[in-house]
Amino acid sequence: SSELTQDPTVSVALGQTVRITCQGDSLRSYSASWYQHKPGQAPVLVIYGKNNRPSGIPDRFSGSSSGNTASLTITGAQAEDEADYYCNSRDSSVSHPNWVFGGGTKLTVL
Amino acid sequence: QVQLQESGPGLVKPSETLSLTCTVSGGSINSYYWSWIRQPPGKGLEWIGYIYYSGSTSYNPSLKSRVTISVDTSKNQFSLKLSSVTAADSAVYYCARDIHYYDSSGYYQGNYFDYWGQGTLVTVSS
């Protein structure tokens, strides 16, 4: 199956900007979606499509894509942004629908 | 506001079948896709499969031989059955609404999960 690769850990100083990336061949064909996941809670959708934020998601979250890489950027990271972040897309290596998640990135806000 | 709630046994014996139900409230199950996703302890998210309200399904190839997802529109519920479970199937299981979107020409662009249940921990152990 097509894989999505994320850096396992990323850190950012409070108030600074951080980019979390997701790499995979399927991203050349399909858009990614991004989820914030805190312990004991359900994952929360933060970005979908080219750069769409669901209602209630702060505008410091943005998304972009180039080639085989999708990125989630947090501009002015806050303490409450500390969480695991997962990307998701369709597997382009098979004809039938198969969704895949990246391995996740643990974001630490220093 | 759409809400999803998983229910089912928290403990399943090895080789038996795991059965979970997701109840959708605050909206209709009709006209949407619905997915099951799981997270083993200490690991990442894994998509299990989806069902359209009409009953069509798609499953993760790695689980396809053991998975059945069904829907009951009269109850606004969909369900997961995973057979021949082992300890590797121990995980928090989530249900989620699965939105598929297309460009102006009708070509598939991507999907996203916009509403999730709180998750239910299922442990496989004798």
Care to give the gist of this entry?
Chain A is built from no helices and nine strands.
State the secondary-structure class of chain A. mainly beta
Query: What Rg of chain B do the Cα atoms give?
Result: 15 Å
What profile does the largest beta sheet of chain A have?
A: 6 strands, mixed
Q: Helix coverage percent of residues of chain A?
A: under 10%
Write down the overall geometry of chain A: globular
Structure annotation, total helices of chain B: 0
Shape summary of chain B: globular
SSE ordering of chain B: EEEEEEEEEEE
Alpha-carbon distance between the termini of chain B?
Answer: 39 Å
In terms of quaternary structure, the protein is: heterodimer
Mean pLDDT of chain B: 97
Would you count the extended β strands of chain A for me? Answer: 9
Structural class of chain B: mainly beta
Order of helices and strands of chain A: EEEEEEEEE
Instruction: Tell me the total number of β-strands of chain B.
Output: 11
| Nearest-integer average pLDDT of chain A | 95
Provide key terms for this protein:
heterodimer, A: 110 residues, mainly beta, six-stranded mixed β-sheet, three-stranded antiparallel β-sheet, B: 126 residues, seven-stranded mixed β-sheet, four-stranded antiparallel β-sheet, 0% helix, 56% strand
